Amino acid sequence: MAAPGELIVGILPFDHCGLGGPIDSCVDWWNGTSMAAPLVAGAAALVWAHLFPDGSPQSCSSPSGVPCNKVVRRHLEYGADAIGAAGQDLLAWSGYGRLNLHGALTIVDTNLDGLPDAVDTDNDGLPDSIEDSNRNGVVDPGETDPLIPDTDGDGILDGQEDSNGNGVVDVGEVDPLNPDSDGDGALDGQEDSNGNGVVDVWEADPLNPDSDGDGITDGYEINIGGTDPTSQTPLCANPGDMNGDGTVNLGDLLLLQRDILGLQ
């Protein structure tokens, strides 16, 4: 992160002031990381005192089991300013932006795991604290990625697949970790073509491998293009033209047979 480091007032001992008289120090203005780093260190100390007033740096852990220093660091990072006073994009020069002590102190972090309750880094509709469900800062098995809006790459945001936002695949929800939840050969995003997590008119069901019950899997109908996965009415002029080549031949019959037998 960044912190102010230009024209910062610093105190000098008397011997370096070049002044006479009964004084013991003077001030000057300094530039560089030597000026910026103490601001971050001082902010970290204040955040620590605010969150863990009785915590020892050698052994402190938060109630959720995260080391206190990691919680403090995350609060400084998530509380930073992403936009400068003149509209500058501060993320162009740093990972989190510019130090903002007020932001770090006012973050709502109910379980003190360092992840703010409502922060959604990848804007997928799921808070980071839900995606990283064990709060260890690592994408473990069964967790969606708080830095990737579509963890399984199926074309639907994680938050839309996990429609109630609890981090669990409940009844009626497609799986944000499985690109083809019903195993029919079509990506969930192909079946839910507008990516809103709902089966709308003319959309196939990502939780039903044969949405129209015609004996042909949705993925086969979508990818081959010969029939409509939401209706038993064929899309093409000849319902027997399974491979879309304009004719009905032995190849069409073999494709249909393989599909019915589950051999595709």
| Low-pLDDT residue intervals, each spanning 5 or more residues | none
Shape: elongated
Distance between termini?
A: 52 Å
Q: What is the H/E string? A: EEHHHHHHHH
How would you write the strand order of the largest sheet? 1-2
Structural class: mainly alpha
- Compute the gyration radius: what is it? 29 Å
Total of DSSP H or I helical runs spanning 4+ residues: 8
- Average pLDDT over all residues: 85
The amount of beta strand, in percent, is under 5%
Assembly annotation? single chain
Q: What can be said about the biggest beta sheet? A: 2 strands, antiparallel
Describe what this molecule looks like in 3D.
This protein is mainly α and 264 residues long. The protein has a domain at 200-264. The chain is 25% helix and 5% strand. The chain has 8 helices and 2 strands, in the order E-E-H-H-H-H-H-H-H-H. It has helices at residues 33-51, 68-78, 101-105, 128-131, 158-161, 188-191, 218-224, 250-260, and strands at residues 8-13, 25-30. It has a two-stranded antiparallel sheet. The longest helix is centred in the first third of the chain and has 19 residues, at 33-51. The chain starts with 7 loop residues before the first strand and ends with a helix.
In short:
It is built from eight helices and two strands, in the order E-E-H-H-H-H-H-H-H-H.
List strands and helices in order, with pairings.
Blueprint: E1 8-13, E2 25-30, H1 33-51, H2 68-78, H3 101-105, H4 128-131, H5 158-161, H6 188-191, H7 218-224, H8 250-260
Antiparallel strand pairs: 1-2
